[in-house]
Give the backbone structure.
Amino acid sequence: MRTKHCQYHRLLLTILLNNPHGKRMTWSALRVVAVLVALTWATILVSSPRERPCIRTLKIGSDLTYPPYAYMHDGKPTGFDPDFMTALSHEIDMTPEFIDTRFEQLITSLRSGHFDVWASALYITPERAKLVDYIAYFTTGNSILTRSGAPAATDAAALCGHSVAVIKGADVATKLRGEASDACKAAGNMAIDVRDFTADAKAPSIDGQSDRCSSDRWRRSQIRCGPESRQAGHLQQRAAVPGAVGIAVTKGNDQLADQLRAGIEKMKADGQYQALLTKYNLKQPEQAQVDAALGDQKGGNSGGFSFDTRYFLSLFANKDFWWAAGTVLVLSALAWSISTVLWHVGGRRRQSRHAWLRKMLGVYVWFFRSLPLLVLLIFVYNAPQVFPELRNVVGSPFMAAW
């Protein structure tokens, strides 16, 4: 539905472009047009801030691989987030456009302007709240699922030394790598082997690449970590407590944030908000949960792309940073060593007097020169899905990269 302002503009274009007499406009006609233009802009300036000249598109970033919150069905975005954002867009007279984006890319894509808002069942955390402005809209929580026959993970201690599949960018991954693994090491146990996957965390658990998988508390009744799987309890009582989830806009985009908040209030007033929550068995967030999730926001990023020097320097004190750098050095040294041996063996054999050997080695060199390393890594890491006996050889990220 077009607004009054769009109708004014169409009228002006009709007068200017469709002169029925085919003559130049007289000064009288031009004065009439000038008055209409002035009246149009005066109406725009004195109108309510919520009234816009024309309907525009609201670009929404969402991970459409995460049913039942957001997924593709018959070529259309489906689930709670698409339903909620479609209703919210209509309340603020905008047309929704969903842009499929993985969880770990939502913040950078939002701040880069690829979309206007994200809505993807993403938890509110103090770290994220320093980069974006949140609007809480429901609560949920995390559970740890395991395959049938494996010991139940009733607390963090039961996860020590075990592998857990998580969706990359999920808040539970930070908790597992941080405080949960620190508790394991303090007790003299091995840290939790957290394995990131870009899509649904159930897939790697089915084929045995991980012992357990993390799932949203509501989705646990619909997800399977393997054949005849069962729920295995929660990751500590704290992780099972519902957490606030929010849609987000870039820092400083107060106009859009106010529009979205006003739209949510309209949805509450006409009953759409509660109807959607009831349909998907969700609850409204409590202010205490939101405040706890936001934490202390002092010293946060005020928006834009300003360079946070303190944060940058703090990375050099992060043990994960040095662990990752050391892993790269170890992998590089191993790869160089193997390559040197293969060069001495293969290079000399390519000068062999046997034509069949030279040709075979030539095909080998041609094949691996033509194959992108990233594609090779994907094939190697997923090889256990086809050949289960390779699980002990290339089942871990380190061995696959080597």
About this structure: Residues 325-401 form one domain. Residues 111 and 305 are 8 Å apart (CA to CA). The first helix runs from residue 4 to 17. The first strand starts at residue 56 and ends at 62.
